[in-house]
Amino acid sequence: MKKVNLRKMARRAGAASMVLALMAASWVAWMNLRGEAPLVAGVPAMPASSEVLRRGAYLARAGNCMGCHTTAGGAEFAGGRGVETPFGVVVAPNITPDAKTGIGHWTAGEFWRSLHHGRSKDGRLLYPAFPYPSFTQVSREDSDALYAFLRSVPAVEKANAPHALRFPYSTQAALAVWRALYFRPGTFESEAGQRAEWNRGKYLIQGLGHCAACHSGRDALGGTRLNAMFAGGLMPDAAWYAPSLASPDEAGVQRWPREQVVRLLKDGVSAHASVSGPMAEVVFSSTQHLTDQDLDAMAGYLASIPVRKAPPAESRRADAEVMVAGRKVYEQHCTACHGDQGQGASGMYPALAGNRAVTLALHINVVQVIQQGGFMPTTAGNPQPFGMPPYGQLLNNDEIAAVATFIRQSWGNSAAPVSTLDVLRVK
Amino acid sequence: MPSHSLAWPSMNTKLVFSLLFAASLSAVAGLASAQSTSAPSGATAAVRDTMAQRMQACVMCHGQEGRATSTGYFPRIAGKPEGYLFNQLKNFREGRRRNQAMRHLTQHMSDDFLRDIARNFSALDLPYPPAPAHGLSAWQQQTAEQLVFKGVPERQIPACASCHGSSMAGRLPAMPGLLTLPADYLIGQLGAWRTGLRAAAAPDCMADIAKRLTNQEVSAVARWLSAQSLPTGTKPETVSAQPLPVDCGSGTE
Known about the structure:
The complex is a heterodimer of chains A (about 425) and B (about 250). With about 425 residues, chain A is mainly alpha-helical. Chain A is about 45% helix and about 5% strand. Chain A folds into three domains: about 130 residues; about 110 residues, no CATH class; about 110 residues, Cytochrome Bc1 Complex, Chain D, domain 2 (Orthogonal Bundle), CATH 1.10.760.10. The relative contact order of chain A is 0.09. Chain B has about 250 residues and is mostly helical. Among the domains of chain B are: about 70 residues, Cytochrome c-like domain (Cytochrome Bc1 Complex, Chain D, domain 2, Orthogonal Bundle), CATH 1.10.760; about 90 residues, Cytochrome Bc1 Complex, Chain D, domain 2 (Orthogonal Bundle), CATH 1.10.760.10. Chain B is about 40% helix and about 0% strand. Chain B is globular and about 55 Å long. The interface between A and B is large, with 124 and 66 residues.
């Protein structure tokens, strides 16, 4: 009697989970394909006008396509740069018009589908390291201009290196589930109550600029939730932290004069900040090439991001001997440029007192800057930037921890101490 | 804002988790290390708006004014031909030479700024350090001098001096002087050329020559070069009528 019941229950449970699995699979499939209009078969594209080509080139800058699709010293747009993620390495493909290894056979419709729906020419789902969750907002007209421009660059025959993703992340099924959870094709819609410039800024920031790809928090599966948008997050390789654009304590510009935001994006340095790490690359290869008008529009939108402050971080005082050790390192190596009161040298070396990059709750950026040093990017407005030596060549981890702690807890700064172990963990 | 919600769906969460994997994200983009400068009151007295001040980022490793340090690895850059320094900075930026620190420092620099840096160090005229005791064996001494001044024609190895200048102090516009460089650095570079970790513009003559040397020859010539000195004021040779013995992509810039 009991046995029969168990068997029956098992059968029922089996049937139920089959149904659930089927439902889940159909849901995933539907979530991946819904809303996709069939591609219009190849109407031969009109030869693009020089005006369209110019606009396409400009949009490629705005989207920083070369950031991933061109390697250092490699042929433009021929691909090959690997994006390290927690799931493995995704390699950017060749997007030159080469017929064999590039996108020479793609139609404008297929190109738009890749931006808008994240699917390749053959229908394969694309990895969101290609930031189509942002690019989905790009207009068809802009997509066509980008397409025309990419068809005009020199074709380079260079086969794509395969991605190096771990199982199961390497499967299309996994990708389909991820997309069902996190990706929604979207169309940019202007907000009626806002000025045209503000909407233009929002379009650039949320669409081609794909700022949210880095400046948003991600969960363990690499998904971005709306409420984490612009709230700051680790870069995919976890080597840097992209600070929050929603918090004036991090990288939010809600309290900045707008022209200073424009200067930062155009010159790489402004009265209030300078860029380093991955943002230096963004300024170098993307934003410095944008028009003042577009940068101003972006600044206007950035300033309007609703403020969401992180909960106040603990501000444990460092041990006295760590501060003494840190001061010693500081006086020996840092004072000459950053000043004995962390005041910096105007226009040349940033102040450390009140410096948001120094006092971020997460210590990794300040440790990276101390270890690797670096120059601000060269730009038209800052053609001969100042730089800092890579102190990782000279200081040991104890010294780096001590000096990082010292600057985080001096001159009114009150961020948490950095331990030697913390330094060791920075990639 | 997207016209839809990106919120985590509440349905099927467990099932979904059991299937789950997700691909990753992200792209290399931004990171505003916004560094708030709360209006500095008075710059540090010693800091000046000069090229030499900007180059303070280089001298920690390359020595004050780029004259090298006694740590035994980093090369002297002071007084090297401008063309050579410019080529090397570009090679670091574009990945033909691999050194993480140099790559990081040069990655967001324009050609113009790289040229400014090269010109800055090339114009310095600083004394060379005295020659250290070398302790070379007779065979090493003889082998090194053969390679430096005569080469080994039957193995297509030209004399070092035929490109690097008759006094080995370099040759304009872009051949570096080699004397007084640390032996470890020279061995490292010749080794990198042999294994393809260092490259120059094609045709990459130095890669070809390095591959024709034996390990013993590399060691002997590196130690010999590091043990020489040069009189103060020695400059790279100006372009001579004598053509280079091999075709070099970076020899003429």
